[in-house]
Amino acid sequence: MTEKTGRLEQIHDFLLFADRFKQIVRQNYLTDGSRRETDAEHTWHMALYALLLKDELGFDVDIGRTLALILVHDLVEIFAGDTFAYDDAAMADQAAREDEAAKRLFAMLPPDLRDRVDGWWREFEEGRTNEARFARALDRLQAFGQNVVSGGKSWREHGVTRTRTFRRMNEALECDPAIRALVERLYARADVEGSWTPEPA
Amino acid sequence: MTEKTGRLEQIHDFLLFADRFKQIVRQNYLTDGSRRETDAEHTWHMALYALLLKDELGFDVDIGRTLALILVHDLVEIFAGDTFAYDDAAMADQAAREDEAAKRLFAMLPPDLRDRVDGWWREFEEGRTNEARFARALDRLQAFGQNVVSGGKSWREHGVTRTRTFRRMNEALECDPAIRALVERLYARADVEGSWTPEPA
Questions:
Q1: Pairwise CA distance, residues A1 & A8, whole Å
Q2: Over the stretch B144-155, which tens digit does the pLDDT of each residue have?
Q3: Probe site for chain B from A1, A5, A7, A19 (most B CB atoms < 10 A)
Q4: How confident is the model at residue A132 (pLDDT cuts 50, 70, 90)?
Q5: CB–CB of B30 and A52 under 8 A?
Q6: What tens digit of pLDDT does each residue of A154-199 get?
Q7: What residues of A are in contact with residue B181 (Cβ under 8 Å)?
Q8: Banded model confidence at residue A1, pLDDT cuts 50, 70, 90
Q9: Residue A71: its chain B contacts at CB < 8 A?
Q10: Which one of A8, A34, A43 has the shortest CB-CB distance to B181?
């Protein structure tokens, strides 16, 4: 086996292994409420959001880089599992669990690609570049849209109130006026449809 | 409502509607054979293939454009349904059905975005640019990998022989030496594991 072939096969083995991402189930439902969506479905959807919203922003993004961040942003959940955004206990050690998972998962790639994928994942996590800010806002906007259009099914199951969603949605609201307009539109729809768990008295 | 808001909401409505792509089920199984994969999962996986294999090719591709082609390449199946690659009857009128679906689906977007998405979809279908050739080869490589690693489950269900797969895989074999090496590796594995339906005598 040549060195070039060994490298190719290592990348291919990683790609075949990454199939497991389709078995990680999120809390969000499909918009018709029929079942929860998988990480792979969520990620494809976020990527489509990026492609169709990038020119509506008040700042520039490199779309190739944005899509790279999105495509790998949840990949560590193959080992770390999905952490529900409103599960405070699980959120507390999420960073440590995911860091460990990233080391294990990305080490399956040749070193240069390992470093590149790890770099995309960390750039998304840190949320400092324009591409990462946009991608993070879309992560929230996509999930919020699924929750609102499915009538708040996942929120009601977990007792999530309107107030509690603000903590999570703030990053999307502050990213850009276009994203803010869409998030506010979704809040207005959820208000009309009464999709929230009532606030504690 | 301002013109800008109307445009944004139109794009957002399309993105929420595109959730239906997660309900289009393909013939291919997940690698563990537990269930078939959805169009959204297949598309995410192809996009990851593109991201990790683009620098292994003997020709240059614009990764942002490649990913755009991939992200929308099967979107018309929301209306036209999945056409199994080895179903000759369905393949015969596939182009006409998908063209009709494209008109209906992409018309939901503002005209400039409608034309852009339609252009990406047609570029993929025509397969002439480097990006489209690469994306089409990955469409075949990803599906072939799912079939081989799941032990040929979908092929056996549909009586697909080794010979019949060549017609479909030829485009991937001829795209680039790196892709060819990976396809040949999968053929070798399927041969060892005996995953094919026997050839007619």
A1: 11
A2: 999 999 999 999
A3: A19
A4: very high
A5: no
A6: 999 999 999 999 989 999 999 999 999 999 999 999 999 999 988 8
A7: 5, 8
A8: low
A9: 44, 47-48, 51, 67
A10: A8
**Both tokens assigned to A71:** 């495509």
- The SS3 assignment for B81 reads coil
Contact between chains at A7 and B63 (C-beta distance less than 8 A): no
ipTM here: 0.96
Which parts of A3-152 fold into alpha helices (H)? 3-17, 39-53, 63-72, 77-80, 88-92, 94-106, 111-126, 130-149
Q: Compute the nearest-CA separation of A153 from chain B (Å).
A: 16
Instruction: For residue B17, give the amino acid letter.
Output: F
Is the domain covering A34-193 a CATH 1.10.3210.10 domain?
Answer: yes
Task: Name every residue whose Cβ is closer than 8 Å to that of residue B88 and which is 6 or more positions away in sequence.
Answer: none
The answer to whether B145 contacts A64, with C-beta atoms less than 8 Å apart, is no
* Residues in chain B closer than 8 A to A184 (CB atoms): none
A159 by Cβ neighbours in 10 Å (0-12 / 13-18 / 19+) ranks as exposed
Domain segments of chain B as ranges: 34-193
pLDDT in tens, B14-50: 999 999 999 999 999 999 999 999 999 999 999 999 9
Of A22, A30, A72, the CB nearest to B19: A30
Arithmetic mean of pLDDT, A50-75: 98
Q: What backbone phi and psi angles, to 5 degrees, belong to B37? A: -95, 160
CB B73 within 8 A of CB B83: no
Q: How far apart are CA B15 and CA B20, in angstroms?
A: 10
Question: Is pLDDT at B90 greater than 90 in this prediction?
Answer: no
